[in-house]
Amino acid sequence: MFRSKSVRCLAVVSLLGLMLTFGYAFAQQAERGQSSYMPVDTKESFASLMARLSGEKAGAEQEHSAVLNERYDLSDRPAQGITMERGKPLQEGVRVKLPSGVTWEQLAAMSADEIRERGLWPKGFLPLPHPFHPTGGQVFPKEEIDAINNPEDPAAGTRRMRFGRELYVERDDFMENPPKNFYRLAPGREVRLRYAYFVTCRDVVKNSAGEVIELRCTYDPATRGGNAPDGRKVRATLHWVDAASAVPAEIRLYNALFTRPDPGVAGDFFADLNPNSLEVLTRSRLEPVLAGAPPGEPVQFERQGYFCLDPDAQPGHLVFNRTVGLRDSWAKAQVSGG
């Protein structure tokens, strides 16, 4: 029905969305499960802890030293005539190492996007790894991603999507113990965030009821735009919204009014009414561009269906109605027992 070139294809995350975080804690109302980011509550004795950490110290220092030598020029080059307060000389010159064959002048002539796309970002500007927090410390600049408005109509142009360190994805796009043929996000698995980066799930955070409420992830800065320079492939692409900029909305899902094609044929017309003919999701999150959508304009929510703004919508209270749904290949396989 909605194949018009005016239809925009945008991301929406429903009430059942999962928080995706990249190395930083995110304050939520829900109770957190155990993770490496929790306050220290060790059951290990102090003596045992000191003995274990002392044994690991040499290896950690060796790894740290290797990272420093890879990223920085550590040679002794004291600046002439300049010392610190107690006489220790200051080191001069730029010490961040550049990729082979690249100069600072060449980098200065490139845009930030070009530097990322070509994998030339100097490693010396990345945070140093922590031995106890492998997913912690990733730098997330406040950046924006170019997203296509309509893949079938290049003339529809693009829009800007904010990409931050906390995102929402659909809960159905993650399984902690995935069965065969489920290619979306799972522990240790890498997927593509549409128009953005490859991300890998490193840690799963649960509440006291054992429900997954947050996924700790890392991303590969070299895959900006959705492709890896080394040619590696992923088998799933997920839609997402940025947690900081997403706008709340009420989503009304209209389904068949009756449970059978011939209502009333058995004598009771009302018995065939579908109690789920209308489902209302009250805590969905949308891209902020939809805050200015005019009433009646059709838009496609990725992998969900076609929607339009309801006349009940008010500033600060968006309401969208689903007019046509889309098929979910995984959900269909589950229903058919595939």
Secondary structure tally: strands: 18
| Annotated CATH architecture of the largest domain | Beta Barrel
The residue ranges in which pLDDT falls below 50 over 5 or more consecutive positions are 1-5, 23-40
What is the count of helical runs?
4
- Main sheet strand line-up: 1-16-17-18-14-15-2
* Major beta sheet summary: 7 strands, mixed
CATH homologous superfamily of the largest domain, by name? Answer: Ribosomal Protein L25, Chain P
Can you tell me the number of structural domains? 2
Shape: elongated
CATH fold-type name of the largest domain: Ribosomal Protein L25, Chain P
Kindly state the mean pLDDT as a whole number? 80
| CATH class category of the largest domain | Mainly Beta
Can you describe what's shown?
The chain is an alpha+beta fold. It folds into two domains: 8-37 and 100-242, Ribosomal Protein L25, Chain P; 247-336, Ribosomal Protein L25, Chain P (Beta Barrel). The protein contains four helices and 18 strands. It has helices at residues 46-71, 104-108, 112-117, 329-336, and strands at 8-10, 12-13, 17-21, 78-83, 89-91, 143-148, 158-163, 166-170, 190-193, 198-206, 212-220, 237-238, 241-242, 247-254, 278-286, 299-301, 305-309, 318-325. The strands form four sheets. Strands 1-16-17-18-14-15-2 form a seven-stranded mixed sheet, with no helix packed on it. Strands 12-9-10-11-3-8-13 form a seven-stranded mixed sheet, with no helix packed on it. Strands 4-5 form a two-stranded antiparallel ribbon. A hairpin with an 8-residue loop joins β17 and β18. It is elongated. The chain starts with 7 loop residues before the first strand and ends with a helix.
